[in-house]
Amino acid sequence: MAFRKEPQFTHGTVAKTAIVLVNLGTPDAPTTKAVRRYLKQFLSDPRVVEIPRAIWWAILHGVILPFRSSKSAHKYASIWTNEGSPLKVHTEKQATLLRGYLGQRGHQVKVAYAMRYGSPSITEVLDQLKVDGCERILVLPAYPQYSATTTASIYDAVFAHYAQVRNVPELRLIKHYHDHEEYIQALKESVQAHWAMHGMPDQLVMSFHGVPKRTLTLGDPYHCECHKTARLLAQQLGLGPEQYQVTFQSRFGKAEWLQPYTAPTLQKMAKQGVKRVDVMCPGFTSDCLETLEEIAIEAKQDFLGAGGKEFHFIACLNQSQPWISAMASLVEEHMIGWPTHLTDSERTGMKLQADASKQRAERLGAAQ
Predict the structure, then answer these.
(1) How far apart are the C-alpha atoms of 308 and 114, rounded to whole Å?
(2) Residue 362 lies in a domain
(3) Which of 15, 172, 227, 290 could form a disulfide with 135 if both were Cys (CB 3.0 to 4.6 A apart)?
(4) Which residues of the chain have pLDDT under 50?
(5) Total of domains in the chain
(6) According to the UniProt entry, what is the EC number of this protein (predicted)?
């Protein structure tokens, strides 16, 4: 077996620590060609679709890619921003802010982001971190609730990469944080901020991404972790069981998925006389196609079309201060034992650099 080429090593180089925030991924552009390329990679993952390969390959290449790519591209175009894909934009900004928060807490670490499907790929990012001298890698999935279809797939990609590497770094992986106190607190503050501006709804709907029901019976903890997140958040908000509902969205194919399904539930609520619903997606830490198009547009149409009067979408955590702080705490907990804290001399040096930069900025401003 031929291993990947190692970067040139210099003796005496200080080993560094890196955090890699990994999200699902996104097409490079809202075009049929880009979406087709993305869907092919995503739907070829055996963690995502467990149908026998020969059967699934015929369905994927004969039906889904030829006919779904254009439709999906239209949906992506409806939520695309001047900066690009919302999911990629939010993930990149989260990584930047996380680096700053950890620095303020005294940690000298690199923070990068990667996508399980699309770019930047996990392999690209891990290769660059090796070049940068990172000997300790902590992988932080963007999924609070563990699922074999998401978190485990990240593990697969990380392990597959290092199976080709001669000098493997120390590696830690975060499995889940669905019940982490600060994550729940960040969700709570997000909801309360929305209610402070718009008032409370008749019902709060917590919509999570769906997976086939058989994954639950085969031992995947995702369903249970979604319900625990919802229960803990409802408790923090002071909601009774009759005031909120857990649903699952993005059903695909004819097989039974986790229920209740989001769209039919909203239609049923409207027909039963519920006038206002607020919908949030606690399983997504960045707004993306599944929240901005499927919920904020399609689900809204479902509810209002069935007789509902008022629909509110509560944005994902994105770059909110409580969420970035929660991420920093989560990372700190998983870096215990790693030498990431700055020494006194390093702190002094960084302060001198910051002061010098500030003085240059002030002189430039005065000159203008």
Answers:
(1) 40
(2) no
(3) 15
(4) 354, 357, 365, 368
(5) 2
(6) 4.98.1.1
Q: What's the token pair of residue 66?
A: 């030829």
- 3 state SS of 299: helix
Parallel/antiparallel/unpaired status of strands 170-173 and 110-117: unpaired
Please give the DSSP secondary-structure letter assigned to residue 15.
P
Q: Are 311 and 279 in contact (CB under 8 A)?
A: yes
Packing angle of the helix pair 151-162, 122-131 (nearest 10 deg) = 50
Residue type, 272: Q
Cα–Cα distance, 177 to 143 (Å, whole number):
8
Per-residue pLDDT reduced to its tens digit, 268-305: 999 999 999 999 999 999 999 999 999 999 999 999 99
Q: How many CA atoms lie within 13 A of 259 on its CB side?
A: 5
Instruction: Find residue 115's DSSP bridge partners.
Output: 23, 121
The domain in which residue 172 lies consists of 16-177+321-344
Asked if residue 168 and residue 26 are part of one domain, the reply reads yes
Domain CATH for 107: 3.40.50.1400
Q: Please give the order of strands across the beta sheet that includes 310-313.
A: 244-249, 203-209, 276-280, 310-313
State yes or no: 209 annotated in a binding site: yes
54 and 37 inside one domain: yes
pLDDT tens string 222-275? 999 999 999 999 999 999 999 999 999 999 888 999 999 999 999 999 999 999
In angstroms, the CA 126 to CA 137 distance is 9
Does 367 reside within a domain?
no
